[in-house]
Amino acid sequence: MNSDVSISEAERFLAAHPDVGEVELLLPDNNGVIRGKRLAADGLVKLFRDGVRFPESIFALDITGDDVAEAGLLWEQGVADRVCMPVPGTLRPVPWHRRPMAQVLLTMLNDDGSPFFADPRQVLSRVLRRFADIGLTPVVATELEFYLVDRERAPDGRLLPPVSPRSGLRPGGVQSHSLSALEEFEDFFTEVSKAAAIQGLPVEGAVSEAAPGQYEVNLRYVGDAMTAADHGVLLKRLVRGVAERAGFEATFMAKPFADTAGNGLHLHVSLLDREGRNVFDDGGEHGTPTLRHAIGGLAATMAESMAIMAPNANSFRRFHTGSFVPSAPSWGCNNRTVALRVPGGEAKARRIEHRVAGADANIYLVAAAVLAGIHHGIDGRVDPGPAAVGGGARSERTLPESWQDALMAFDAARILPGYLGTEFCRIHSACRWAERRKFEAAVSPLEHEWYLRTI
C-alpha cells in the first residue's frame, strides 16, 4: 500500500540497527494517549508495505481507555478495523528501554487511502490543506511544561518532588529559571538531550519553572506544522521514558499540585508565503495587519476551542485568579499576562504565542484549533481590538470557567466545525461528555474526609 521509498526506510533502519528485536507502533488517540502494539522487527518491512489494522473505535475512548458508545464507532460500525500506515521519518530507536527497541508513529486511513476523519493527526492535516490553498505555510514550535515527581507518595497519598540524585534533597520553593534546579537533575536532562538527538527531536533547551520539580522543554521551529506536532507528541513520551529509567515519574497533568503552578502547552506560530517571507513581519514591533487579523481569529474561536485546550476536569484548575494562565481572549506585545502574546525580539521572527492550552491537551488538536483560528481571522480580516497593556488583561474572565461550560461552548461552535469536521466534533464531544459524567459520578476520598462523620 505504500511506496518503495517508504519501504526502503524500514530496510535501511533494519540494516543500521540489526540488534533491534521489536518495534512499538504508536497511534495517539483523541485524548493524546498513545495506543498501539509491539511488532517483531522482522515484520517491519511488511508494516511499511501493507500497514496494520486497528479498530476505528480507538478514537472513541475516554481517558481511562473505556469505549464511549455514544461516539457511534462501536455497534453502528461493528467495531470496524481501519488500516494504519507508518508516518515517514518517525522510525527511530528507543534509547530508554533496557533492550534494543524501536518505535514508529502511525496514522489511520480509510481503505481507499483517504484520511480517516477521527484521527487527530488527520484533523490537523485537514486544517493545513486550507493554508496550502492560500499559499501559506505555518511554522510552529511547542513549549511543554511538566513535573518530575517521586514514585513514592507521602503518607497521606500526596505527590512529592523527587529526591535529587546530586544533593539527596527534595527541591523546594520557587525555582523559576534557576540553574541550580537544573543541575540537581543534570543526569536526567543529559539523558533527555541524548535521547532527543537519537530520535531526531529538535530539543532547543530546558528551563526550570515556577514550582519545585517543574520544568519546561522547548522544541525548535519546524517549517511543517504536522512534523512539529509529531515532535511534541514524541517528546512527551521521551520525557516519561527517561524519567522512569532514572527512577522517578514525569507528569504532564495540567494541575498536579493545588498550591503551585500548572503545566502549560504554549504554541508559537508564524506564517510564510510562497517566497518564504514571514507575513507577520513588517519590520516593526506590532507586525502586519495579517498578524492582527490572525490574532482576531484566535480571539473569536478561543471560547469554542476551550474543550480542546482544557480537555478534562483537572485542566480547569490551572485557570485561577492571580496566575499567568489567561482567562480572556486578550492579546498584547511582549506581555506574558495575555492569551495571545506577540513576543519581542527580531522582527523577522515575528510570531504569535498561544498561551491557553494545558500540557494535558492533545497536541494535534491544539495545533488544529489554533491554526483554524488563524485562518479564520485572515480569511475574514477579523479585528482583534486594542492590545492589552500590563497586567490588565487578567482583570475580567470571559472564557468558559468549567469543563461543562467549555463543552457547551464547543457544542455551540460556529467556526471550528468547518475546519475540524462536523463529524469529528460530534465524536469528540460525545467522548468528553461521557468522561465528564463518569468523573462526576465517582465518590472521592475528600468527600469521605469532609462528610462521612460530620453529617
Structure description:
The chain folds into two domains: 4-115, Roll (Ubiquitin-like (UB roll)); 128-420, Creatine Kinase, Chain A, domain 2 (2-Layer Sandwich), CATH 3.30.590. The protein has 13 helices and 14 strands. The protein has helices at residues 4-16, 44-50, 120-133, 179-183, 186-199, 225-246, 289-301, 306-309, 363-380, 403-411, 416-420, 422-441, 445-451; strands spanning 22-28, 34-40, 52-55, 81-86, 92-93, 101-109, 137-149, 203-208, 214-219, 249-251, 265-272, 331-333, 340-342, 352-354. The strands form two sheets. Strands 7, 8, 9, 10, 11, 12, 13 and 14 form an eight-stranded mixed beta sheet that branches. β8 and β9 (214-219) form a beta hairpin. α1 runs antiparallel to α2 (44-50) and α10 (403-411) runs antiparallel to α12. The longest helix has 22 residues, at 225-246. The radius of gyration is 22 Å and the shape is globular.
